[in-house]
Amino acid sequence: MQGIKKRLMKQMADPTDNEQFQALAGAFVTLELDQRRRLQELTEALDEDPEDLGIEQLDEKQDRIDELLAGITARMNDDPWGMWVQHLAPEDLQNPDRASQYAGLEEDEWQEEIEDWAQRYRDAPDHDTEGMTDRDLAAAHVYQVFGLSLKEFEREVVAWRPGEAYEEAFAGAFKQHNEAIAQLAQSVEE
Predict the structure, then answer these.
(1) Rounded mean pLDDT of 35-52?
(2) pLDDT at 178 over 80
(3) Neighbours of 153 (CB within 10 A)
(4) Rounded-to-integer distance, Cα 41 and Cα 25, Å
(5) Nearest to 27 by CA among 72, 68, 87, 82
(6) Closest Cα partner for 84 from 96, 94, 76?
């Protein structure tokens, strides 16, 4: 009995190596891709541009399956940040491990970080900071260290929440489809 339990626990620990998880992810992705394909057809039939409605190009099926399995693994291992970095983060994000310390900061904590960075730049003799605001200095720092604009860093990293990362990984395409359907319905009504 212990051998069966041990084998089941091993299979559950790695969804990427589990046929049941792979089959379930495959079925889910098939539905997702079929819905997206139909939505693209509908958009074109209504003489709308799918990109204007936020309908992205279809992913390769196996890539999307791998993304779902990574999300399941991350959920089981309590690693939403790692999953987000690997599959959902902006491509230009640099130093994701370092960025993780700013993920999910509250507004007052984030403002404190901006002020600290600005003060360090002002205190450094080799930086000309005359006339630059704290946000200007933070923007330069964020771009240099993380490769993102300050606004993108705030939107993607500072505002990051684990639950939202999982929601995007598992249901992002369906949410996108629903938003596009709502926009199409509105355009038909007009």
Answers:
(1) 87
(2) yes
(3) 24
(4) 24
(5) 68
(6) 96
